[in-house]
Each structure stands twice: as structure tokens, then as C-alpha cells.
Design goal:
Helix content of chain A: 25-40%
Shape of chain B: globular
Strand order of the largest sheet of chain A: 6-7-8-3-9-10
Structural class of chain A: alpha/beta
Number of helices of chain A: 10
Number of domains of chain B: 1
Oligomer: heterodimer
Helix content of chain B: over 70%
Number of strands of chain A: 10
Order of helices and strands of chain B: HHHHHHHHHHHHH
Strand content of chain B: under 5%
Radius of gyration of chain B: 18 Å
Radius of gyration of chain A: 19 Å
Order of helices and strands of chain A: EEEHEEHEHHHEHEHEEHHH
Distance between the termini of chain B: 24 Å
Number of helices of chain B: 13
Largest sheet of chain A: 6 strands, mixed
Strand content of chain A: 25-35%
Shape of chain A: globular
Largest interface: A-B, 30 and 24 residues
Largest sheet of chain B: none
Number of strands of chain B: 0
Chain lengths: 260, 249
């Protein structure tokens, strides 16, 4: 399958008062069309920074990347049209109704008013939120709010969906719900999903392939079972063992820190 | 596309303003209090210039309304950043200039509406001024709001917390108000203060609106006022758009 995301040497250095800080030091990765890729790593490893660069929110200070055939540096508008992005904090105004937020979002992606209204209904139906359309976003429960965040990123039917820690703070039922939603998106639309997570069971259950980053570089990558075999000793090892072994290869302190 | 996007962003924020009608009226309170409790003190004083004391005070209060209100516009964007709303919009193909323009045009609309209320109250208090002059005054309020709100949003994008934002704005707003002669004309000031006040852009705006209120539309004050207001607006929108384009917020 063709690569829909490819990055080479992607890097970002922040200038701070105490001198430059390299948050991402050079990440190489490719994601195939229709793949669900999980980006794992301890806090501060550079996961969110990587995601923000790939979605045009943050300009890289080094390296190149292309998403759905659009070069990140020369065609950011093309990248934006091809991507949906859900940040950790979501991004809806609690005072506004679900319908209004969805319609405005669709129109920001240049749908006509009519298309945007139809798409809002369609998404609400697909996500089981029909009866919530005219509720204010602030009145939704955590799990439903998260589904709305994802619906917001799907109004233009993107080829690639970026999710930053999509299930953090959700109860187990809502998490399972969200996993099946992500799975369905890939089955029905062939959407490529690129997500970050701290939950190893989530990575194990949902992702086709994992990329583990540590201190701004790729520390390991492969399918969950390949990582277990290579770093945990057998395919029966837990992903946590493999993950700790990978992180311990860098610094034992960070590995402990990262264990959920 | 810019027009489409600007209208879209404008609509979103205008609906937000309509939802909080209380805040819409509350903004007029401070200048209204000045009008009621400070305005009557001036009626018998020699303020120089032509026309009544109301023709001197009301232009100042109009710009005070714009100055204080628009400078605090950036507070809202700090909250929106926290909710992730700003990022969610910035990942869409929407024009970066429209993200700013839609917001500041909404602010300009709100402040012109408040300015109309203030002028109506002033008419009751005794203000008499030519209609054209009053309309010119609204145009200046709109331009000033556009400029200051742009800069305020830019600052809001750059700072992390409201605690950093508030003191910075206060540091700008109080000296600006005093030095631009909003309350009393700077022509009453000693020479050093008069010279100092010429370094503050709002001085030129308030002089121009005062001229408009006495029907002098072709004066040197008017020319400088227009030049400063337009130049300041252009500068502010450019700064604001640059921040919206690049901020890693």
C-alpha cells in the first residue's frame, strides 16, 4: 500500500530563555493508507509536538514530511484539507449547540451551507448523537463530548485523522465505544488514523502498528506482537514489558515515569 | 475566500455576543457614569475651543469606550486557547487573516452599538452636534476598536495566562487615556505635557472627533486624525495576522 504520511528527519527545537530545547530531534516514519498507527512514548517524548507539526500547527525546524501527497512546507493548505485533527483539549465552545459547531466547522472546511448542514445531521446519526444536535456542547458527558470532538474533525471526510490522546480521562465504556468508532472509520471509509496514547491496552487492541518515541527520536517500531517478541522476549509478553524494555534502553527513570 | 471566511468567523462571534446581552450593555456603564457624574462639572468651565463642554467631553468618552473595551478583547482568546477552539480552527484551511478580521469586525460592531447608546444618552444630557460629525465619530470608534482589538488578540495569543495579560493591558490603557486628553482637552496642558501627548496616537483621534463634533470637517486635526487612525489600523491588523499565522499556541 502507498504511504499516506511520510516524514524524514522531522525536528523541532524551541527557543527558550534557558537556551534551545530540542523537543523532536529527527523522526522518520511512514504510514500506509488505511493504517491505524499508534505513537507511544513517555511524557515529554515529543508525541504532541510531532502531531502538531504534521497538522501544520507548528512549523518544523528541520526535516520534511508529506501528507496525502501534499508537502508540509510548500502546501500547508493541501495538508489541512486532507487532515482532521482532535487535540487533547478537544476544541468546542460549551455555550454553543452541537449543530452550530458542526455546521460552522464544515463551512470552515469550505462546504456550502447546505452541505455543512446535511453533513452535521449525517455525522450525528453515524455517531449516535441525533438527539444531542440541539443541546449545548457544554452539557454533554465526557464520552459524548469526545465523540463530538471527533465528529468535528470528520466534517470534510478527511483521508487522515490525527487523534492526540483520544481516550484520556474517559470511563472504560466510553473508551471501548471510541475504539469501535475508530475501527469503523477505517472499515467504512478507509480513513488512515494516527493517534498518540499512553494506554498500552489501547495500543494493543486498536493499532496495526506502533511507533515508540523517546527523547524526540524513534526508539522502536513494529506491530504490537513484533514489539513484544523483540523487546519482551515472546509474543505472550505484555506490551508493557516491551515498552519498559524499550524505554529502559534509554533511561530507566523515564521508563518508570511512563508506566501507567 | 477571504470574504467567505471572514463572514463565517464574524457570524460565529456575533451570535456569541447576542447570547450575552448583559455584557453588551455593561460595556457602556463606565463612560455613562462619566457622562452623568463628571459631564455636568464641565458645563461652566472655559475649555478653550468652540462649542459646548459636551462637544468636548463626548468625543473623549467615545474613544475611552473603544480604548478600554477593545484592549481587553484578547482575554476571550486566552480562554478559547484553553478550550482548544483556536487550534481547532487553525488546522482548517480557513484564512488566517479571516480568523482575526472576523473577530475584530465583531468587536467594532459591538462598540459602535455601544457608542450609539452613549451618544443617545448624551443628547438627553444636553449634547448638540451635527449629524455628520456624530457619524464621523462612530467611524473613528470603529477604526480604533479594530486596531486595538487586533493588538489585544495578538497579545492574547502570545501570553499563556490571564494573569500575565491583565497587568500588561492596564500598563497601556491608563497612561493612554490620561495622555491623549480624553477627559479634558490637551490644549489646557502645560507645554511639556502637550508635547508628550503628541507621542500617543489616540491624541490625534480625539482631536479629530472633537473637530467633527463642532462641524469642522476640513481641519488639520481631521487630516492627522484620519492618517493616524488608518495607519494604526493597518499596522495593527498586519501584526495581528502575523501572530495568528505563526503562533505556536
Amino acid at each position: 500500500m502507498a504511504a499516506v504520511i511520510s516524514a524524514a528527519g522531522l525536528a523541532r527545537t524551541f527557543q527558550t530563555k534557558r537556551g534551545p530545547v530540542a523537543a523532536v530531534r529527527g523522526i522518520d516514519l511512514t504510514v500506509a493508507e488505511g493504517e491505524i498507527l499508534g505513537l507511544l512514548g513517555p511524557n515529554g517524548a515529543g508525541k504532541t509536538t510531532t502531531l502538531r507539526m504534521l497538522t501544520t500547527l507548528l512549523a518544523p525546524t528541520g526535516g520534511t514530511a508529506s501528507i496525502a501527497g501534499h508537502d508540509l512546507a510548500s502546501d500547508p493548505a493541501g495538508v489541512r484539507r486532507a487532515c482532521g485533527y482532535v487535540a487533547q483539549s478537544g476544541g468546542v465552545d460549551g455555550q454553543i449547540t452541537v449543530r452550530e459547531e458542526l455546521v460552522t466547522q464544515g463551512r470552515l472546511y469550505r462546504l456550502t451551507k447546505h452541505q455543512a448542514m446535511a453533513r452535521a445531521e449525517e455525522l450525528a446519526h453515524a455517531l449516535g448523537m441525533d438527539e444531542l444536535l440541539d443541546r449545548k456542547a457544554g452539557t454533554l458527558s465526557g464520552g459524548r463530548r469526545r465523540r463530538l470532538d471527533i465528529a468535528m474533525a470528520l466534517t470534510h471526510r478527511p483521508r487522515v485523522l490525527f487523534l492526540d490522546e483520544p481516550t484520556t480521562g474517559l470511563d472504560p465504556g466510553s473508551r471501548a465505544n471510541l475504539w469501535s468508532l475508530v475501527g469503523r472509520l477505517r472499515e467504512e471509509r478507509g480513513t488512515t488514523v494516527f493517534l498518540t496514547t499512553h494506554y498500552l491496552d489501547e495500543a494493543d487492541a486498536l493499532c496495526d502498528r506502533l511507533v515508540v518515541v523517546d527523547r524526540g527520536v524513534v526508539a522502536a517500531e513494529g506491530t504490537p506482537s513484533a514489539l513484544k517478541l523483540r523487546h519482551g522476549g515472546s509474543t505472550d509478553a505484555s506490551l508493557q514489558d516491551a515498552f519498559l524494555a524499550i524505554s529502559a534502553g534509554q533511561t530507566p527513570k523515564d521508563a518508570q515515569h511512563a508506566a501507567p | 475566500m477571504l470574504l467567505h471566511d471572514t463572514a463565517l468567523i464574524y457570524g460565529r462571534y456575533a451570535r456569541q455576543s447576542l447570547r450575552s446581552r448583559f455584557a453588551l450593555l455593561f460595556g457602556v456603564l463606565t463612560p455613562l457614569l462619566y457622562l452623568l457624574f463628571f459631564g455636568p462639572l464641565l458645563t461652566g468651565l472655559p475649555l478653550g475651543g468652540r462649542g459646548s463642554s459636551w462637544q468636548v467631553l463626548v468625543p473623549g468618552l467615545l474613544l475611552q469606550l473603544g480604548l478600554f473595551g477593545a484592549l481587553f478583547a484578547g482575554f476571550a482568546i486566552i480562554m478559547e486557547k484553553g478550550q482548544g477552539v483556536v487550534e481547532r480552527m487553525r488546522v482548517t484551511p480557513v484564512s488566517r487573516l479571516a480568523l482575526l478580521l472576523g473577530r475584530v469586525l465583531r468587536d467594532a460592531t459591538v462598540f459602535v452599538f455601544q457608542a450609539v447608546l452613549l451618544v443617545l444618552a448624551a443628547l438627553v444630557m444636553g449634547l448638540r452636534a451635527p449629524l455628520a460629525g456624530i457619524v464621523i465619530g462612530f467611524a473613528f470608534v470603529a477604526l480604533l476598536t479594530l486596531s486595538l482589538a487586533s493588538l489585544s488578540y495578538a497579545l492574547g495569543m502570545l501570553v499563556r495566562t490571564p494573569q500575565e495579560f491583565g497587568p500588561l493591558i492596564n500598563m497601556v490603557s491608563m497612561p493612554s487615556m490620561l495622555l491623549s486628553g480624553l477627559m479634558l482637552p490637551m490644549s489646557l496642558a502645560p507645554r511639556w505635557l502637550d508635547v508628550l501627548s503628541h507621542l500617543v496616537p489616540f491624541r490625534y483621534l480625539v482631536d479629530a472627533v472633537r473637530d467633527a463634533y463642532v462641524g469642522r470637517y476640513a481641519s488639520a486635526h481631521m487630516l492627522y486624525g484620519v492618517l493616524v487612525a488608518v495607519g494604526f489600523a493597518a499596522f495593527s491588523v498586519i501584526v495581528g495576522t502575523r501572530v495568528f499565522r505563526t503562533a505556536g499556541a
